[in-house]
Each structure stands twice: as C-alpha cells, then as structure tokens.
Amino acid sequence: MKVDELLRRYQAGERDFVLLSLRRSELSGIDLYHINLSGSDLRGSDLSQANLTGARLRRSDLSWANLCGANLSGADLGSCDLRAADLREANLQHANLEHAKVTPEQLAEAADLDGAILPDGETRESS
Fold first, then answer.
1. Count of domains in the chain?
2. SS3 10
3. Rounded Cα distance, 101 and 3, in Å
4. Structure confidence by residue, pLDDT tens digits, 80-97
5. pTM for this one?
6. Domain housing 36
C-alpha cells in the first residue's frame, strides 16, 4: 500500500493497517491517532512530528525511523525494533515498550532520546 492510499483510507475512518510495508515513507507531521500498524515495516521512515497517540505499533520495525518530536503517548510499541531510531523530543509518556528490542534502559545508548518524554513521564536531558 502506498502512503496516499493509507491516508485516504485513514481519513475515511479506517484504522487497521497491519503488516504493511511502508519502508522509507514520508509521514512527517501526519495525524495517525489510534492507527493500528502492528507488524508493519517502517524502517527508515520519517514520522517526525507525527501524532501517533494511542497507535498500535506492536512488532513493527521502526529501526532507523525518524520519530523526532512525534507524539507516541499511550502507543503500544511492544516487541518493536527501535534500534537507531531518532526519538529526540518524542513524547513516549504511558507508551508500552515491553519486549521492545531496545528497552528503556538501552534506549539511552541505542537511540537518540534528547528531550524525549519517557513512559514514566520523565524528560530525557540532552547529553
């Protein structure tokens, strides 16, 4: 599925888009509130400033994705691959990171989190 079709169907009220290949897609600044992209390939995609509040991204591949400034509050990122993801200033408050390939403890080393709001509500300070 191409991005324009995804957005058209999302605008029409559809929310379930599992197992999509959206590798290297341009989705910056887009409102995808409560979308279900479980199991999708989002490697290298630009999701900066996107509204992914309450999104279901379980088992998705977000490695090398640009999530800078994205709102991921309440998102389900369980079992996701977040290796090398750019999460600077992202809002991860109340997000589920259970079984993610990069755990909250590892995120400081494996992903860029400067200014991000972590699941516990704490803000990651710039290094």
1. 1
2. helix
3. 26
4. 999 888 888 899 999 998
5. 0.85
6. 1-121
